[in-house]
Each structure stands twice: as structure tokens, then as C-alpha cells.
Amino acid sequence: MKAVIWTKYGSPDGLQLGEAETPTPKADEVLIKVHAAAVSRADTEIRRLKLLFPFGVLIRFYLGVIKPTRIKILGSEFSGEIVAVGRDVTQYRAGDQVYGYTGLGMGTYAEFICLSEKPAALLGVMSKRPTNITHEEAAAVPFGGLEALHSLDRINIQRGQKVLIVGAGGSIGTYSVQLAKHYGAEVTGVDSGGKLEMLRSIGADHVIDYTREDYTKNGQKYDVIMDTIGGSPFAGSIRSLNENGTYLNVNPKMTHRLQMGLAKGRSSKKLLSWEGDYTTKNLLKLKELIEAGTIKPVIDRVYPLEQIAEAHRYVETDQKKGNVVVKVQ
Ligand SMILES: NC(=O)c1ccc[n+]([C@@H]2O[C@H](COP(=O)([O-])OP(=O)(O)OC[C@H]3O[C@@H](n4cnc5c(N)ncnc54)[C@H](OP(=O)(O)O)[C@@H]3O)[C@@H](O)[C@H]2O)c1
To answer: What's the predicted TM-score (pTM) here?
Structure first.
């Protein structure tokens, strides 16, 4: 099969279009013909092994110390069609249109992948895909959509609450803005200037360009501050919360973890850290919300698979609005 082979850590030039063996599904797996795959911020960070300590070290041991040997194909989000099923598979059959997240198994920059029908924490989850959007759009839903949905469901947002989202213009951010609006919140999106118009177009009531304004110093108070990137100043964010407000950090840096640990139990404010929960149930909930027109994926650019290195370079310009996708078929 056609696949992008990951030959070395570092520059996007290490991603080379080539041939790989088409995988064979095990008893509990399905074989999926991939139509489109997302090119996420995380893909570029994993490619460079530019990850927070200790994850960078652990991932290097998992992938291969000198170069990627255990996993040779990057990419962890896909939309496609099932073409064969293992003998024990009960929930899917050939012809089903599915989307999902392969987690640490990666492999979606390729014509075919195998995935178990049973979700496994970090090794993948899938479901039938939304019927009213294209494969390119559907491929951009699983990671950002699942993170946003699970994170906001932990807060139980009440109608009229003021919610501020840091990194609102990214993959997790664009789903978070739309979901918070759906739950009735008054939403402020914080990101760089080039993304603010898009944020208004998906429903943000207020926008802040973080390169020009510090939301912790504008005198506003919020009920929820959700940080999707680990870029929020902790003390200032806590001061900007109403009494009983919630600070939710989906990508806490080590310093955030320490600050949250030290502050826990010493104030009326709720402090929540990342808690991954990738479930079929939530993928189906996202499917329903998309089919109802409540949320939609924001797609910035679609590249052919052959231009995967360019797609990675574009994501690394920091101009990406929402999501970037590669078309595989
Ligand atoms: N997508 C995945 O599969 C995945 C998996 C695991 C972990 N993560 C991590 O989760 C984080 C968010 O993921 P994502 O896919 O949503 O990333 P993303 O699409 O790159 O979005 C991040 C957004 O945050 C903005 N930003 C950067 N610094 C900011 C600041 N100080 N204040 C406000 N906004 C700021 C960026 O804009 P500018 O660049 O223009 O500043 C960008 O629009 C990333 O760190 C990623 O590594 C992602």
C-alpha cells in the first residue's frame, strides 16, 4: 500500500512517500481504507520529539531510540471505510463508514490501517462517522472533538456562564468554543490575531489577541477558564475566576501541575487537569452533534498525501486555523 514512511526524527523531510505492507486484521480488528487523515500539532511535535518532560524520553523509548523503528507511519486521526473484518468482529461490517483516533498506534498517513473494534485507552477508538460531512472534515474531528467534549462535560457548564478558552483557534479550541456555546455559555476565545475572525464565525461572543492583550489584566472575571495548550499564566488565571469558578488545563506543563497541586484545597475554585477519555460513546455523541448542525469541524487546508511534508511545514507556521488534513484516497 501507499504510505508515508517516517524515516527520522526532526525535519518534515524525514516523511517520505513510499510503499508499506498492507496490514491484515486480527480476529477483533477491522481493516480500514483511509480516505483522509488529520495533520495535528501533536503529529509535528512527535515527529520532532518535541514533547514535555518526561513524555519526550518515554516516547523515544517506545518509538525507537535513534530513529522510529517500532512505529514507521505517523498520524493518529482518520476517516475511511471498512473493507474487511476479523472473525470475532460483531459491531462492524465491510462498507461501514468510520472515523477515529489510533492513539499511540498511529499509522493513519497510509492507505490502510487495522483497528480493534474494542476501544483501548491509548491505542485507539472508532465509531461510525457523521454522514453529513466529507471524509476530510470527519478526519479532523476525533482528537480535538473528544478532548473538548470530555473536558467540558466534566465542568457541567450552566447557561449564561462566562467561559474563556485559551488556544481557541486550534483543533481542541474550535470544538470547545462551539460546545461551550451549545451549553449556553458566553464565550471568550483567546488566540493570535489571524484567528479571531474565524472564532467569531463559529460563535465566540468575544475574542482576545493574546499577543496584544493579557486577559488576566483586563478586569474581567470568568466562571470557567479552559486552557487547551498549557499557555495560561496560573496565578493570573485563578485571580480572573469568579468565586467557585473552574480552571481547567487540558495540557498542563510541569509548572502548572505543581502550582495546581500546591493550590488544591486552599481556595473555593475548582482546579482540573487533563484526563484523557477516548470513548466510542463520545465519538458517537460528536457524530450526533455534527449531524444536528450543532458543531462543525473547521478546516483550514487539505493537502494530497504526496505533500505531507508541506502540510507539516504549514502546521508549524502557527497560522493553522482549526485543522489541516491530508487526502489519502
Ligand atoms: N491534536 C492532537 O492529536 C494532540 C494530542 C496530544 C496533545 N496535544 C496537544 O494539545 C495542545 C493543543 O492541541 P491542538 O491540536 O488544539 O493545537 P493547535 O491546533 O496547534 O492549537 C493551539 C492554538 O493555541 C494558540 N496559542 C498558542 N499560544 C497561545 C497563547 N499563549 N495564548 C492563546 N493561544 C495560544 C495557537 O495559535 P498561534 O500558534 O498562532 O499562537 C493555536 O491556534 C497542543 O500543545 C498539542 O501538542 C494534541
So the answer is: 0.96
